[in-house]
UniProtKB/TrEMBL annotation:
Entry protein name: IQ motif containing with AAA domain 1
Lineage, highest ranks first: Eukaryota, Metazoa, Chordata, Craniata, Vertebrata
InterPro entries xrefs: IQ_motif_EF-hand-BS, N-DRC_Component
Annotated region (Disordered), positions in chain: 333-368
Organism: Zonotrichia albicollis
Family matches, as PANTHER family: IQ MOTIF CONTAINING WITH AAA DOMAIN 1
TM annotation in the entry: none
């Protein structure tokens, strides 16, 4: 098994383990009053943890990277510990070490072999000497008790030993002869090529060069005709259009990259320098207000948004000039307000009634 496959199995198993832990946090927080439901929940987790244990053991055995082996080993030990905890809870719940899991296996679509507890391979490898000693000691006990019989070891006869040695020696000689013949063949081939190159006449050399050149020219011509046919059929674009399209794509990509770079630069600059600039402006505004108070004896009014807000303050002016400007703006605002009030007052007052004009009698001077 390759290292990539082991890492992939480890990653998939780790995801399953995370899902199991999350589900346990959700399900095991609330106690189950029904013993059957509690047993079913424990048995389901037990079977699933056994499957995770097999996968982790499968990924751990072929791994070579020591740090990865240590990480998988830690997860493997944790899963085994959790299996023991669940087994203890099951035994405490049913007061029995043998449990019926047929319903759980059927629900999870598993076979009975899936509930067999596997022995991790690293446990056997690390304790191989102890296990061999135990097996040998147990064999001696059984042999002394007469429960097993001593196996008869048949020795190899002289003829059989000679035959094995002859087979091995003949195989070695055959491999050496094959390697020697291969070297001779390659040397003869190299010498024949050198002789052919040296014995060629100028006409033969020219013919060889012509063959190579004509073949190259014909391949280029065939490739050109194929390209023209593809362009004629509309299955490919002319080289000029392909170059233009590639240039357009390149320009678009460069523009997008430049926009992203500018956008990121502005945001990075704002994130890095924004708080400092804001703090500096606040200090300048505070200092300006303090200087105005020192000159005039009171704090000036903050400029309105129409007047520019803090922008009207952050200028290179003397505090007295700023106070005069603010006072002038305030007077102008009051004058405008008074004018508006006057107009409103005039609009509310009723207009005076006009008296009808009496026509004066016209004297007839003709009678006079």
């Amino acid at each position: 098994m390759s290292q990539n496959t082991c890492c992939q199995i480890w990653a998939d198993t780790q995801k399953e383990l995370d899902v199991m832990l999350q589900r346990e946090r959700e399900e095991f927080q609330e106690p189950q009053e029904d013993p059957e439901e509690a047993m079913k929940m424990l048995a389901t987790a037990y079977v699933q943890y056994l499957a995770i244990l097999r996968k982790l053991d499968e990924a751990h055995a072929p791994l070579i990277h020591q740090q990865k082996r240590a990480a998988v080993r830690q997860a493997l030990d944790g899963v085994m510990g959790r299996i023991l905890e669940i087994k203890g809870e099951m035994v405490a719940l049913e007061k029995c070490e043998c449990h019926s899991m047929a319903a759980v296996l059927k629900e999870l679509q598993r076979v009975p072999e899936d509930i067999e507890i596997p022995i991790p391979k690293y446990f056997i490898q690390e304790n191989l000497g102890i296990l061999q000693y135990r097996e040998k000691y147990l064999h001696e006990i059984l042999l002394n008790a007469g429960l097993i019989e001593q196996e008869v070891v048949t020795a190899m006869t002289l003829e059989e030993a000679i035959g094995v040695i002859q087979v091995a020696e003949r195989a070695r000689q055959g491999r050496a002869r094959a390697a020697f013949m291969r070297r001779i063949y390659l040397e003869e081939k190299r010498q024949s090529r050198t002789q052919e190159q040296q014995t060629k006449s100028p006409d033969e050399a020219a013919t060889c060069i012509q063959k190579v050149w004509r073949g190259h020219r014909q391949r280029k011509e065939t490739e050109r005709l194929r390209e023209e046919e593809m362009i004629f059929l509309g299955m490919s674009l002319p080289p000029e259009l392909e170059v233009m399209i590639s240039l357009q794509k390149t320009n678009v990509l460069e523009g997008e990259f430049q926009e992203r770079a500018d956008y990121s630069f502005v945001h990075e600059l704002r994130a890095a320098e924004g708080p400092h600039i804001k703090e500096t402006f606040q200090e300048e505004i505070t200092q300006c207000f303090l200087e105005c108070r020192h000159v005039t004896g009171r704090f000036p009014d903050y400029p309105l948004e129409k007047a520019g807000g803090s922008k009207a303050i952050i200028v290179e002016k003397h505090p007295e000039e700023i106070v005069e400007e603010l006072a002038a703006k305030k007077a102008l605002a009051e004058a405008q307000k008074n004018e508006k009030d006057k107009k409103k007052k005039e609009a509310k007052e009723p207009a005076p009634e006009k008296k009808p004009e009496v026509e004066k009698p016209v004297r007839n001077e003709s009678r006079l």
